[in-house]
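User: Please predict the structure of the protein below. I'd like the answer in structure-token form so I can feed it into my own downstream comparison script.

Assistant: Understood. Taking the following sequence of 71 residues as input:
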Amino acid sequence: MIEGIIRWSVQNRFFVLLATLILVGIGGWSLKNTPVDAIPDLSDVQVIIKTSYPGQAPQVVEDQVTYPLTT
């Protein structure tokens, strides 16, 4: 089967090159016309959380309030 495809491709170089150019053209057109929203933003998301726990040490506030909020 593969031998047949290779033989046909060698015998019909023009059609193979034409199909390749068409596919490359369609790929370029698709890349150019893809809206930016369709490409996800992969940057890290950073959030600043300010928590208040009067009378507690900063480590206790981080362990008991801030860390559970972020997980």
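That's the full token string. The helical segments are 2-11, 13-33, 58-70.
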